[in-house]
Amino acid sequence: MNDRQQIKLTQGIDWPVMGLYTALVILGLLSIFAAEHREGDNVWQNIVHLNKNYARQLMWWGVSLVLATIIWLTDSKFFTATANLLYAFGLVLLLLVLGIGKDVKGSHSWLVIGGFQFQPAEFTKLCTNLALAKYLSSLETDFTKLRARLIAAALALIPAAIIILQDETGLALVYLSFFLVMYREGLPGILLVIAFSGIILVLSALLVDKNILFIIFSVITALVIYFNRREIRRSRARLLLILAVWGFCSAFVMFVVPFAFTKVLKDYQVRRIEVMLGKENDPKATYNTRQSMIAIGSGGFWGKGYLKGTQTRFDFVPEQSTDFIFCTIGEDFGFAGSVLFLGLYVALLFRIIFIAERQRSTFSRVYAYGVASIIFFHLAINISMTIGLAPVIGIPLPLVSYGGSSLMTFTMLIFIMLRLDADRQMVLR
Amino acid sequence: MSVYNQPRRRVIQLIILGMVLLIVTRLFFLQVVEKKYSKLADANAVLRKVVYPSRGMIYDRKGRSVLRNDVMYDLVVTPSSVKNIDTAYLCQILQIDKEEFRKRIVTAIIKNGRVRQSVFASLLTPDVFGRLQESMYLFQPGFELVQRQIRSYPYSAAANILGYIGEISSSMLEKSAYSAYQMGDYLGMTGLEKTYESVLMGQRGIQYLVKDNLNRPQGPYEKGEFDTAAIAGKNLRLSLDIDLQVLGERLMRNKIGSIVAIDPQTGGILAMVSSPTFDPNLLTGSYRTRNFSKLFVDTTKPLFNRAMQATYPPGSAMKPLTALVALDEGVITPSFGFPCSGGYYNCGRRIGCTHHNPGHAANLRLAIANSCNSYFVHLYRLEVDAAKWGGVEKGHQKWYEYMSSFGLGHRLGIDIPGEYRGYVIDTAGMNKRYPGRWSSCSELYVGMGQGAVSVTPLQMANAMCIIANRGYYYIPHFVESIDNDNSQLLKEYKEKHVVAHISDTSYRSVIYGMEDVVERGTGRSAIIEGVAVCGKTGTAENNAIVNGELKKLKDHSVFVAFAPRDNPKIAVAVIVENAGYGSTYAAPIASLVMEKYLHDTISVKRKPVVQRMLDFVTMDPVVQAKSKLDSLNGATARLTTEQVLNIYFPNKTK
Questions:
Q1: pLDDT tens-place string over residues A91-105
Q2: Residue A87: per-residue pLDDT
Q3: Which residue of A93, B107, B117, B407 has the fewest C-beta atoms within 10 A of its own C-beta?
């Protein structure tokens, strides 16, 4: 093996993923450049002096590639061996942030190391993914049992809980993506349906007056009972189940949601949710979404052309090079460019799923699905928020948004997967 | 395992595709279907800036600019866009308190509404402007700085002629004539500025700038592809002689009245003085509104252009016209005489005449020179009673038509707004005034310029042009030409108006009579050395209602003239209200104006006359005491008599 690696370093690498990865990072750099560049700027000087985000992103890509090379040269057994250790290390980092972290833009989730800011919440996605893969691939784990499922859920939710304490709700949400992986590994599909129904319930609870909802639920329940009257005559349990569902939904709408809004969620979160739902028109709160939608909407079908956008180039959209980087693509390249851009992501996700399914080892498959799920959640939430489909929760667009922690984490996630894939003939348990 | 879970892989892929499809659908509506976003983006990022061209200049007949263009800035406000600004800081810069700030916003809303721009602080001083410009981005988009063209007047003269520029009012904006203007624009409100607004304003340009989120301009939009350049306003070249105008305003100081001087050969007005006047610089700059109200309420009515808005009985100045009609209708010959012995008794009442010696009206020339009242009221009667009319009604109407063709009783059509028409009674008017029966005796005073006839000084001067030209005139006007202009704006002023085809011999007799007036008659104070001046004095009786009683006031001093007799260059009408005989004040002033124009200087011999005119005060002391004008009046009040004399007679004093 070692001999062969020396002969050809790139032996076994998955070129489609490599190509898509490179394309997205370069598109990201170009978008950050478009957001920041002003006519007359000295680009080379800015790059040399790291004055601008695009220069720093270029540097982070360099660092990421160094990390990627190191990962590529590491034996894949190392990742299975250290998965639990890394997970523990990640949790320690998260707790450390709670203690000595620094506040950046309203979230207490940053560590400062030698002048560089670092967000462990990004890094722990990697650790969690490894640990989950390790646990699910373990011979002792029987994922059909409730106990195993609870442990797997805990693995995903413990870091998420700590991250919520750091006021970085957006990133915490991403940890829900691991349930997609668990579904692939055997979690009953009904749970996805229940989760989906839950979301609908929450949304309707927010949008519709609770008393009206209560009446609607009662009418529906009555109708259901009427149409199922024969079955109900036969079994009392059916009636109890229907009434239980009715009771739960009503209680949720009448008490849980108002309670969550007044007691649990923070003011700004409530406002963002209300803005997203169109319930509140506070111009300050809608500003980000509104400007972002103006930028994307003004792109039209073909876009304004690279560096021609007026909205993204003149600071109308806040967080232009990080969370709202998609605006640049929407404005400069229009609908056509946006669809093509989304196409790149879909290709990447499908390729990763393809890679996952060709693995012989459960560890590699779970890990690869984890990578796909994390990227998918980031993509879906980030773009939805720029086009007003989701509340503004600050999570980056994978590989494209400006941010060292994010770029490094995604690079490492992908390259560990590539390493595992290259060694898929090996038995890794 | 792998085979068993195949459907779950599909489900995950479907979830991904479903989500992406949702996003793509949303994007499709956002980017392709909905068009408002690109408009919103433009509103966000494109700053539409109106570029005001420099307003056209105005030059006098010798090419001297009678005004200058200065640039000042207004702070305008759009009340609906004022949000989250540092009010205290803005107040500090403008040196107003919060109460005043609130008041101005409320005024702006009342005046133009919430979403339209109103002037918040007009014509900022350079100091305030500098400080505002530095921190303007703090107050945008609610507040903007807008460039304004401000006129300034180096001669401090001709205020009522030039007019002033003011902000467009909301009632004007509703009219289609002003559709090219926007709220807050400035335009000519009176005078030449108003009449020639269309050429003076030029064409406004529009510049599109890209701005950032703080409204700071970041450079031209699309490299200026959509910009339109501003085209400067066209310059006006006037017939006005600004030196003559200044002299006239100085001579008329402390008097109420007016001077109109016209070049008979072109109809171009050389000077038009209405006294009291004011410094046109008062109606520019930061204090325009305050000064305007002062001028508006002043007891001496300086905004009232007496030269074309006040009407007077012409008095004896009318007599040459009466003579022309009689000659033309053949009711007399130049040798016709009237045995006047100090009064006219033919109509059953006495009409007084200042002369008693027999033979003072032995022929037309003598009658004009001696201004015999009896002679001219008799001429009027002869005209209207002439047998060929077959009745006084037709005769009077014929007389009215003559007067009308001389330019009396209707607007001449001068190129500044506000001209009055004056009044000449016609047959319909006579029927109304004397229901039932009337005869040539009823209003015979009109023959000597009293009674049911009143004229503006402009009409008097124009009548002089007709006599000077022996039968034609051009509509009096200020603008001789407009630079680079091919519009028809000046067409009517180039058109010769021939009056009633009266024969040259008729004119000659009248003109000789008028020459005699100056040479040896009532107008000797108008003599100019080496120039044949033809003139006619007038002493117009006038009444006013004081404390509910009709009271006879001191006569107006009137003098009309033209010179030289042959090839005339200037025609003048001067009225000094309530000053007495025409020969005492109006005649010397007219002759000084004519001398200045014809010789470009005033002979040293006439220094005492100038001094007397400058020092002479006819304004009612009560009115004068009430007037606040002295502090406002620029051109004439700032200088003492000695200083004015030094200007016109510099050698004598050295």
A1: 999 998 888 877 776
A2: 95
A3: B107
Give Rg (Cα) of chain B.
33
Query: In angstroms, rounded to a whole number, what is the distance separating the alpha carbons of residues B601 and A116?
Result: 87
Cross-strand partners of B560: B536, B573
Mean pLDDT comparison of A374-383, B97-106, B114-123, B285-294, highest-scoring range: A374-383
Superfamily designation of domain B313-455: DD-peptidase/beta-lactamase superfamily (3.40.710.10)
**Residues from chain A contacting residue B31 (CB–CB below 8 Å):** 296-297, 299-301, 330, 334-335, 338
DSSP code for B474: -
The answer on A110 and A243 residing in a single domain is no
A55 and A175 share a domain? Answer: yes
Check: CB of residue B261 under 8 Å from CB of residue B271.
yes
Per-chain mean pLDDT for chain B? 84
The answer, yes or no, to whether residue A133 has pLDDT greater than 50, is yes
pLDDT over 70 at A279, yes or no: no
User: Do A12 and A126 reside in the same domain of the chain?
Assistant: yes
Extents of the domains making up chain B: 6-34, 47-238, 313-455
Contact of A268 with chain B, judged by CB distance below 8 Å, is answered with no
Q: Residue B149: pLDDT band by 50, 70, 90 thresholds?
A: confident
Residue B266 has pLDDT above 50, yes or no: yes
| Closest CA–CA distance from residue B48 to any residue of chain A (Å) | 14
CB contact under 8 A, B9 and A384: no
Q: Which of A186, A298, A316 sits opposite B37 (nearest CB)?
A: A298
How many CA atoms lie within 13 Å of A61's alpha carbon, on the beta-carbon side?
20
> Domain count of chain A?
2
Question: How do residues B296-308 score in pLDDT, each as one tens digit?
Answer: 888 788 889 999 9
Residue A278: the pLDDT is: 56
CATH of B47-238, one of 3.30.70.120, 3.40.630.10, 3.90.1310.10, 2.60.40.1120: 3.90.1310.10
Distance of alpha carbon A124 from its chain centroid, rounded?
A: 13
pLDDT, position B201: 85
User: Model-level pTM?
Assistant: 0.61
pLDDT at B486 over 90: no
Are B20 and A387 a contacting pair at CB < 8 A? Answer: no
Give yes or no: residues A236 and A358 share one domain: no
* Ramachandran angles phi, psi of B261, nearest 5°: -125, 130
Handedness of CA B92, B95, B100, B105 (dihedral sign): negative
Q: Give the distance from CA A37 to its chain's centroid.
A: 28
